[in-house]
Fold this sequence. Notes:
alpha+beta
Amino acid sequence: MHTTASSSMALSLYLHLLLVLSLAVAEATVFTLQNNCRKTIWPGIQAGSGKELLRNGGLRLKPGEVVSIRAPVGWSGRFWGRRGCSFDKTGKGTCVTGDCGGQLHCSGAGGAPPVTLAEFTLDSPMDFYDVSLVDGYNVAMSVLATGGTGMCRPAKCVSDLNRSCPRSLQVTKDKQVVACKSACMAFNTPEYCCTGAYANPNTCKPTNYSKIFKKACPSAYSYAYDDASSILTCKGANYLIKFC
Length: 244
């Protein structure tokens, strides 16, 4: 029997569902990717464990192009820029830097270092974000929080570290420096990689190499325990990620 009480309950449930859905949409975070470089960038996206894969993990962004991507509440992951890529019609190919297994859509794979990273953990309960050079550098990046509350300071590495990269860290192609390795990648020692006896902030300290990164990009992570000046927070923001 269809009664007034059951109709009221159905209406109440329907309105509650609409409210939940509207809140979910309102709280979703929008990442806007902007290519300020003179050449095409192929952004890669890797989601945290168990999190939704955005845009199949990769896309192409022409010079001056802007793309917005919506991430669900509680998302975590990282973005990076791939350079010098060439893909066939099936999405297979290679990138000079930041390659993710020779695929246009990274499908969960990370970028091969050295690569500049923009990292996010949303709604925990604040958003935590940073630009990291722990895996090296390949392109200038910045993260700008918009519409949020809290400190919400920009995270960035806008200096061209390829120009100032120490010779022992340089990655070259056709006699041009295309990326700058981390000291960990270049030398693979506990001191530089913060492993073994150096696997804590009391023993793993800035090195001459990480200091070069830090001087060029003060708000970016320069080594594994560079938390104090590099991890930033905001609440309820959207984020503009600029390449170059």
